[in-house]
Amino acid sequence: MTEYTLAKTAGFCFGVNRAVDLVFRLLDEGKHPATLGPIIHNPQLVERLAGRGVRIINSPEEARPDETVVIRSHGVAQEVYGQLEALGVDYADATCPFVAKIHRIVRQESGKGKTVIVAGDVRHAEVEGIRGHCQTPSYVVEDGEELRILAENLSEKEKINAVLVAQTTYHTNRWHYCNEIAKKHYTNLKIFDTICSATSERQSEAAEMAAASDLMLVIGGRHSSNTRKLQEVCQKHCRTLLIETKDELNGIDLFAYDKIGVTAGASTPADIIKEVLKTMSEILRNEEMEDFATLLEQSLESEKIYNGKRVTGVVTSVAPNEVHVDIGAKQAGIIPAEELSDDPSTKIEDLVKKGDEIELVVVKVNDQEGIVTLSKKRCDAARGFEELKKAYEEETILDGVVTDVVRGGVLVYTCNTKIFVPASQSSDSRVEDLNTLLKKPVRLKIIEINEQRSRAKGSVRAVLSAERKEKQAKFWESVEIGKVYQGEVKSLTSYGAFVDLGGIDGMIHITELSWSKLKHPSEVVNPGDMVEVYIKDFDPEKKRISLGYKKNSENPWVIFQNDYHVDDVVKVKIVSFTAYGAFAEIIPGIDGLIHISQIANQRVEKISDVLKVGQEVDAKIIEIDVDKKRVSLSMRALLSEDEQKKDKELDLNSEVEGVVAEKIVEEAVVNAEAE
């Protein structure tokens, strides 16, 4: 009976997973990624990304203005960064931290004048990138023999001042041999062991598995350096085949082997591994054999701490910028502040305290320093995604807060995770500057779920639109002439103000804003003001509503009638002159006429010789005509009897003038009312 086993270290390494996640995240944020070379050496994943519009370019000059260039995990030469910045190209750096560490080493050492020797493949992108950070001549050797030959050709000064680093995916056995050669042929050679620990572990496990198997299947791209090295390691112990997909199993007689080992390169996606295992199960048709999902799950369960593993930890101390936890391993567990929560408003002390037991996920393992970096927010996000799926299915409205503005929209924190809301869905009206939404609470619905990437897309607009329609329906059911509403002034025009009554807008005409004549509505109201209005008229078919704002109790004539009477003496202010007299303001909105004959006890040739605009004088109300909205005033009536005496000629002239003036006044008032 054929049995097969999957290596625990099979599949994406930390650096590759980080790079692939970065590309998918850029896509989810609405950006247009272009990778500087294939993001990983796996044709299936590269093809999948191409289907989503991800281009592969060979140099920064090929980038389009709207694209974000992604530097893959292999890293690039220093000059490439300079080119990107000189061209003003937006870029995201996915260089593997282990590769970046080599860059730092060679920059520092070459800066001291030392010669750099790299053990690796001279044609590999990672090696090219490493050499691009050297400030002195650099050399590449593929194995110990080439390292020996190089020693014979270097000057004594170069040999004494040389450093040796390795490509992160370099063959571990070859590296050991290089170390032996270096000790024999180089003096004071400084050696940096820069092979990725994940690579060493994967090769070591593959060798052990191959020694106990009849056949080894290595899954991965044929152009992947680390995958080919796995094949080399395994084929020393048993027959080894490199396959890219499940389709290649058809040409292999699996029944000819009792024990089959399966491993995969660091650039092989988990779904391809699953497909291979599932197909093997179907071919072998062994009911006693556990299915592929169980096998893969078991491969991930181990006492060893590795990236992506879920663990339970107990908080041992809380610091301002990190939390220390005991995860039952030899390494110390640390949760950086940024890995506690995506909610920017929370404080560390509000999230956890000493003694708390919390669920975490491993982000990074540093065996050299004995530290495991952990994340709480990623576990919370996984649980939150289940809530998002439920909310999507049930069309539930969620509460959230806008935390970030990104290209094409905003990120909203809800259900312990951030979800993308496109700009078009961020409001029910056009938002010119999305930054105005930052830190504001919003209500939203989930409109799209991507289970493969555990991503969701939300809409604030859907909630606002639904609420507005509901409010509009209720409004039209209850609206009636004279009904009073509280509303918010939304906008102004030269002819009036538009007011939001709660889901529907009405308009206050400029003549309804004040009893006084206005030049512009802004003299009375401004956008954002809360006002009390009443329904003057409405048309349900055309959805038009006319609103009243000025109140009858504020009508100047109502106030005047209540407070002023004939024979009252009032203090008035001169506001204008006419040929027949002067108009004076009694109260705002009510002017009275002081006829020229009522200004003084003698003939007045020129009114401006007696009165000035803005001057305050005492006058007596001698007539009130409410229907015609007229008030007559007299300054002369306040004079003594002796002062009022005039000769007959003057009285006659005044009488004639009065008749003429009265007609002129009537015509002026009629014209004013018409205006």
Short structural description:
With 675 residues, the protein is an alpha/beta fold.
Number of domains: 6
* Terminal-residue CA separation: 105 Å
Which stretches of 5+ consecutive residues score pLDDT under 50?
286-293, 299-303, 647-656
Q: Can you count the beta strands?
A: 32
Q: What is the level-2 CATH architecture name of the largest domain?
A: Beta Barrel
Kindly report the CATH topology of the largest domain: OB fold (Dihydrolipoamide Acetyltransferase, E2P)
CATH classification class of the largest domain? Mainly Beta
How much is the radius of gyration in Å? Answer: 43 Å
Strand order of the largest sheet: 13-14-15-17-16
Class from helix and strand fractions: alpha/beta
Largest sheet features: 5 strands, mixed, barrel
What best-fitting shape do the alpha-carbon axes yield?
elongated
Task: Describe this entry's structure for a reader.
With 675 residues, the protein is of the alpha/beta class. The chain has six domains: 97-195, 4-hydroxy-3-methylbut-2-enyl diphosphate reductase, catalytic domain (Cobalt-precorrin-4 Transmethylase, domain 1), CATH 3.40.1010; 206-297, Cobalt-precorrin-4 Transmethylase, domain 1 (3-Layer(aba) Sandwich); 310-375, OB fold (Dihydrolipoamide Acetyltransferase, E2P) (Beta Barrel); 380-464, OB fold (Dihydrolipoamide Acetyltransferase, E2P); 479-550, OB fold (Dihydrolipoamide Acetyltransferase, E2P) (Beta Barrel), CATH 2.40.50; 563-674, Beta Barrel (OB fold (Dihydrolipoamide Acetyltransferase, E2P)), CATH 2.40.50.140. Helices cover 32% and strands 29% of the residues. It contains 18 helices and 32 strands. The strands form seven sheets. It has a five-stranded mixed beta barrel with strand order 13-14-15-17-16. A hairpin with a 4-residue loop joins strand 24 and strand 25 (505-509). The longest helix is centred in the C-terminal third of the chain and has 27 residues, at 648-674. It is elongated and about 140 Å long. Mean pLDDT is 85; it is low at 286-293, 299-303 and 647-656.
